[in-house]
Amino acid sequence: MSSSRIESLERLKQEFQKLPGIGPRSAERLAFHVLRATKEEASALSDAILAVKRNVSHCRICFNLTETDPCSICRDPQRDAGEIWVVEQPRDVAALEATGLIRGVYHVLMGHIAALEGVGPGDLTIDALVQRVKSSDVREVVLATNPTFEGDGTALHLESVLADTGVKLTRPARGLAVGSQLEYATAAMLESAIRGRTSFREPSDPS
Amino acid sequence: MALTKDEAIALRRLDYSETSQVLVFLTREHGKVRAIAKGVKRGTKSRFAVGIDLLELGHVVVSARPGGGAELATVTEWKQVRSMAGLRQRLARMHAAEYAAEVTAALTEDWDPHPRVFAALVGLLDDLCQANQVFDRLVDFQRELLDEIGSLPEFAACLTCGRIPEPDEPVHFSSFEGGLLCRDCEPAHVEKRELLHGCLSILRGQPGHPTSQVAAFDILNYHIAHLMGRNPTTAPVLLATASPA
Q: What is the pTM for the complete model shown?
């Protein structure tokens, strides 16, 4: 071992290296950045890390990440609790919320069913969703899992377990991406777009 | 690094980083290829248009060292040819396809070409897209895969004495021995599974009743598990979802 080795710096590098997408070089760069920062800046970073671990948990109703339980969306009386958007991850909630179009509430599954990886329905929050649908006045469940093989499989499983609740089950539309070009679309995108085509102007459209 | 172009099916997909994934492909001419697809999760901003999904058929271009080796190849291009959308309409079809992917990945070696297995897998997925019962096609696939890798059990005659069992004679199967055991030879073997009535003809490649097809699937899966050293994780899920009532 080199005598010039600085233990606390090495420890910081090792901790950074545990973060996703951070290799030894990036970890070293970050560690030296922290070293150059003021004590206040370093404290702010460590406080933020501790605060997120101390204060953030999962909402007991929708399983989204929150600092208050239930979360602000589940507590919001303006939200339509009869419409539940089921998503795989908390970051999917953030993506949908960014549209500003969702008036309903969410349910985060915390993953998807992946038999190849040994992830089954029992590893997700599916039982809680079924209980939630059965015990409250839910009209519609939107199965907004990712349009991947695993996401579609999870949606099929949810369809089977929610079938006897009588609730309306829907999927977000899928097909061509806005801003893309037809010639670069895949067969699957085109197939979904063709099957799910809509009227050019809906009757209720005022424009 | 050499560029390799081939038809491929993604058998397995693992997240590597925020935007990259490691994929296991079965290719027609080059066998199983492990590759990293950098930036594949960026959606429309990536070179792969909409990502690479499991069990869809496409054309892949990978950059790899000549001869393959243990190193991960890099996916440089992917164009989807068939999405196998029919699989996603029923859970049983999806689980059957996942089972085929798992055992294919487990029983083939990297860069070891098996065009017959590739053709059998594409045929299976195409058929599953329309299938109501999945086990008859899965048994055909299991037989083809085992035959191609040289591990198809012997179902014509008893492996110990060579006698062809009489119709309706109770028979057993030994994975260790690699085939059938007649009623006279069976007591001498510890590792064995009883073959249910109607199962043997299906294992010999003949049609049969749906319930017997499940039993035949289970026997071949028992043999595959023996070869893999573990039970395929997708098998219990498939049996729970797709077995006829």
A: 0.86
User: Does residue B110 sit in the same domain as residue B209?
Assistant: yes
Residues 6+ apart with CB under 8 A from B29: B6, B7, B113, B115
Architecture of the domain whose range is A58-201 = 3-Layer(aba) Sandwich (3.40)
- Please state, in angstroms and rounded to a whole number, the distance separating the CA atoms of residues B78 and B15: 17
Contact A100, A155 (CB under 8 A): no
At A45-97, the pLDDT tens digits run 999 999 999 999 999 999 999 999 999 999 999 999 999 999 999 999 999 99
Q: Which domain holds residue B38?
A: 2-83
Interface probe for B, chosen from A92, A113, A116 (most Cβ of B below 10 Å), is: A116
Query: With contacts defined as CB-CB under 8 Å, which chain B residues touch A185?
Result: 49
Nearest to B234 by CA among A119, A72, A30, A101: A119
By Cβ distance, the residue of A116, A120, A184 closest to B49 is: A184
Checking if the pLDDT of B187 tops 90, the result is yes
Residue B82: closest C-alpha in chain A: A187
